[in-house]
Automatic annotation (TrEMBL):
<protein>
    <submittedName>
        <fullName>Uncharacterized protein</fullName>
    </submittedName>
</protein>
Length: 104
């Protein structure tokens, strides 16, 4: 598996070994290409799958925050229509309640 840093958990990118050279000095994966024989790969277990899920959720949260800031900068929050404002306000209230727990 390939690893990327994210949050406090690692984001794991699954990869399959597709070819091993006859002398077993190199091997190839479907996503990352060529690797030497000293590279270490890990088999995903239940714990690493849960950590991967948390890392993906963190990336979604982080990307959502950037999208929100970008929208506010480009269009302004007052451009949100009345029909979407109530739903957006409910979601924002839920987020601020969660964040409030970490301020204390």
């Amino acid at each position: 598996c390939g690893w990327r840093s994210s949050f406090r958990h690692q984001l794991i990118t699954p990869a399959k070994i597709t070819r091993i050279t006859p002398k077993r000095t190199k091997f190839f994966t479907d996503k990352f290409g060529e690797h030497d024989k000293n590279e270490i790969f890990y088999e995903c277990d239940e714990n690493s799958e849960k950590e991967n899920e948390l890392a993906i959720m963190f990336e979604q949260f982080r990307d959502g925050r950037y999208a929100f800031e970008d929208f506010n900068r480009k269009y302004g929050l007052d451009s949100i229509g009345d029909e979407d404002l109530m739903e957006a306000a409910d979601h924002m209230k839920a987020i601020t309640e969660i964040l409030q727990k970490y301020k204390e």
